[in-house]
Specification:
mainly beta; Immunoglobulin-like; 4 domains; six-stranded mixed beta sheet; five-stranded mixed beta sheet; 1 helix; 36 strands; about 0% helix
């Protein structure tokens, strides 16, 4: 069992709260007057006690046993510490009574103890009473609560079937995965838990005022479990994959009345490529806004209309959400630098998120370098020479070139000619191998890709 991080801290069970057959424990300062009252707010395993012997609360009794609790009470406001005793016995043999107690209990607040030694498959009754350790006075015992110890785990994993996303097959995406879950012959299954990462939620409680637990039923709240239609029965559920991956892994296990889990069933299926189509409608110059059209996958659109697209640009942590038209199509104007990448996914009205499509401006923005005196990858005689720089495309947009001969040479920037080209004269200072690195810059200040030109001088 767990308690919520929001829960008030519960005082740890004292070392003296172990198993004992003593009914009275003197010694703690208590009330000089007044009488102890019968405990109230009885809980076991953080759930309200069951008072019907024919319908006991089914709990796991292994380990330290079942946690029981109740609020000790006293008629005197000067009673600072009380002892709460718990006695329990197997219903099949009421003579086998054992008693545990919690000393130094605070009046008006839940006091806890553990009932150890419960036998798997046996039903037990338990009661509580308040004892005043200052004078040995004791209240009446409460009415009995009943628990059935169940330490046997389900022997079989559940059966898992999906008609629209069959196991180990590829299917069209766009609709929730419909799952049919079965108990696989295990008679005491109450429900099923599922997870996309193999980590399952566990039952527990939030602790409220006066230490009263508020049990968190795993079948209530956020969907991570579904109750079976009958004990040992079946259930169905519709789920959305949490991520738009091609391969989807779902983990399912069944649980019995004591929340003992079965072996886990690993259900794997695949989703066909369902990313939207990206079309560039305008051939804008370098760095200028261009119009893009996003078209939904036909199968996704048929399952549920696409309502928006999420656009993520490489290096940006702020995706842009673009509403779609009723047809599922959307258009937008974007300014992407040469070589910049963006991804686009669609969101449908039913919550389905498609896989991502990638788009990259593959325009070659390197510079064409030619030299009659110093051909590329060739060693030539030492003499003055020239290099001609020209862009691959969009010559009218080139404003300048920046170049350097080798890593130790300071970069030089020279304006481009009217046609976006440039001739550079150069005299080699020594013989050896050189590399020329050059890039163009557009009139809008966009730096284009570097070009490396290797050559040798005799």
């Amino acid at each position: 069992m767990r308690t919520s991080p929001r829960a008030h801290a519960r005082v740890a069970l004292a070392a003296g709260a172990g198993l004992t057959l003593a009914l009275l424990v003197p010694g703690a300062a208590g009330a000089a007057t007044g009488t102890p009252n019968v405990p109230t707010d009885l809980y076991n395993a953080y759930q309200p006690c069951a008072t019907d012997p024919n319908a006991p609360l089914v709990v796991a009794g292994r380990g330290s046993g079942v946690t029981v609790e109740g609020i000790p009470r006293h008629t005197s406001p000067s009673a600072y510490y009380l002892t709460e005793q718990f006695r329990y016995w197997p219903v099949a043999d009421p003579t086998q009574i054992a008693t545990v107690e919690r000393t130094w209990s605070t009046p008006g607040y839940e006091a806890t103890a553990d009932l150890p030694g419960l036998v798997d498959g046996s039903t037990y009754a338990w009661q509580a009473r308040t004892v005043d350790p200052s004078n040995g006075a004791a209240s009446d015992w409460t009415a009995s609560c009943y628990v059935l110890a169940d330490d046997t785990f389900p022997s079989q994993p559940p059966t898992v079937v999906s008609p629209n996303y069959p196991e180990d097959r590829s299917s069209q995406g766009g609709a929730p995965i419909h799952l049919e879950l079965g108990s696989n012959g295990v008679s005491d299954i109450v429900g099923f838990q599922y997870s996309w990462n193999g980590v399952f939620s566990v039952s527990g409680a939030d602790i409220g005022e006066h230490g009263i637990p508020h049990y968190n039923d795993p079948f209530d709240g956020p969907r991570s479990a579904v109750r079976a239609d009958t004990l040992g029965g079946t259930a169905s559920v519709d789920l959305m994959p949490p991520s738009p991956s091609w391969i989807q892994d779902l983990y399912v296990r069944s649980v019995d009345r004591a929340m003992n889990p079965s072996p886990t069933y690993h259900y794997r299926f695949r989703i066909n490529v369902d990313a939207p189509k990206i079309t560039k409608l305008s051939n804008a110059p370098y760095g200028k806004p261009a119009t893009f059209k996003f078209t939904p996958d036909a199968g996704v659109q048929a399952a549920s209309p696409v309502v928006s697209y999420t656009i993520t640009r490489f290096g940006s942590d702020d995706p842009v959400v673009l509403p779609a038209e009723p047809s599922g199509v959307a258009t937008t104007t974007l300014s992407l630098a040469p070589g910049e990448t963006m991804t686009v996914s669609s969101l449908s009205a039913n919550g389905w998120t498609s896989q991502r499509n990638w788009w990259r401006d593959e325009t070659d923005t390197t510079t064409t370098v030619t030299s009659a005196q110093f051909p590329a990858n060739t060693s030539s005689p030492a003499a003055p020479g020239s290099f001609h720089f020209a862009p691959k495309t969009e010559t009218s947009q080139i404003a300048s070139y920046t170049y350097a001969f080798g890593w130790s040479d300071a970069p030089t920037t020279v304006p481009a000619g009217k046609k976006g080209e440039l001739d550079v004269t150069w005299t080699p200072p020594y013989s050896g191998w050189y590399y020329l690195v050059v890039h163009a810059t557009t009139k809008d200040g966009v730096q284009l890709a570097d070009t490396y030109y290797w050559f040798g001088v005799n």
